[in-house]
Amino acid sequence: MHMKTTLRFLKTKLVAPVMMGSLLLLGFSSCEKDTSSDDDLVGNWVRRSEFEGVGRTEAVNFTIGSKVYVGGGFDGTDRLNDFWSFDQATGTWLRMADFPGVARNSAVAFAADGKGYVGTGYDENDNKLKDFWEYNPSTNTWTRIADFGGTARYNAVAFSLNNKGYVGTGYDGNYLKDMWKYDPVTNTWTQAASLTGSKRSEAVAFVHNDKAYIVTGLNNGTYLNDFWSYDAGTNSWTELRKINDVTDDSFEDDYDDNIKRSNATIFVMGDKAYLSSGSRSGIIASTWEYDISNDTWLEKTGFEGTAREGLLSFTVDNRGFIVTGNNSSYRFDDLWEFYPSAEQDDDDN
Q1: Structure pTM?
Q2: Is 141 helix (H, G, I), strand (E, B) or coil?
Q3: C-beta separation of 104 from 72 below 8 A
Q4: Which of 12, 17, 94, 146 has its Cα between 20 and 30 A from that of 232?
């Protein structure tokens, strides 16, 4: 039941999913803080200048220099093709050239060699897509590039390493684990080593010190616990520790099944990554810190806005932010910054 809800809820114009549970009651009419967080957890979320476009879910974003670009997605009625840039130094948003491809949600994006790239997803007629587009921030223009090398799909992941883009996993009618590399110099896609772990949709990916990491997601209705890193130099995957309690090690005692989820977001600050929000038999707001050097997880203060899934995150100047997303009733435009070492404070919104 949950698989159908998670993978198809956007195609049914966001009819309220089943099994949402009490977490959704935290903020249908406002963006108040989630009071379910344990008082002993560390970390504080501070509300910042809202995204200037309409609230949306399943949008895409990429970062070039100190600017973040956000666009596309689904507003509850229509797929969108507007694009906006965010200047963290001034807290301002500016509308850029509209994305010229068919409006879509559940697409992917990455930045490589000073340009942004957007592709895949699906449109208002439920057509899975494989077209790809390049954005040049110097000219504020879009150019269609070679179509994605794999099958048309949605809910994939994307990242960049060594000025090459990578897109993989997702759903094309089948759960997927293939990985494809894009070279902006030659405008070509070549198949890289497939993810060694489970096939998956709605996973998250991040990059740190020239390695990429993929974790979470769904496969056939099951929330996945395997965790993998990718080395582009050797074109190989290495398995990391599971993200639930599977050994007798004491550090795993708090994991249980609390880290597993789908349709979440992750961002990196320093040598740690922060996984937040998403869905696990209902929408959740919990946030976990991943220590990359030690391969361990620590729970932090949960996201303090309205619990949501289908959200975006980004890091600028080593500051981490969350924006957009949805619950069963709303598509959001609020922007939040996370301070992982600060004490939680209700008075800074």
Answers
A1: 0.88
A2: strand
A3: yes
A4: 146
Model confidence at 149, pLDDT cuts 50, 70, 90, reads very high
Mean pLDDT, the chain, whole residue set:
89
Token output for 321: 């932010």
Q: Mean pLDDT lowest for which of 15-24, 94-103, 105-114, 187-196?
A: 15-24
Closest CA to 131 of 103, 105, 101, 154: 101
Distance separating alpha carbons of residues 268 and 137, to the nearest angstrom: 23
- Partners of 45 in beta bridges: 338
Token pair 């709303």: residue: 330
Residues linked to residue 108 through DSSP beta bridges, in sequence order: 119
Fold of the domain spanning 2-336: Neuraminidase (2.120.10)
Query: pLDDT tens digits for 209-221?
Result: 999 999 999 999 9
Place of tokens 């965790």: 227
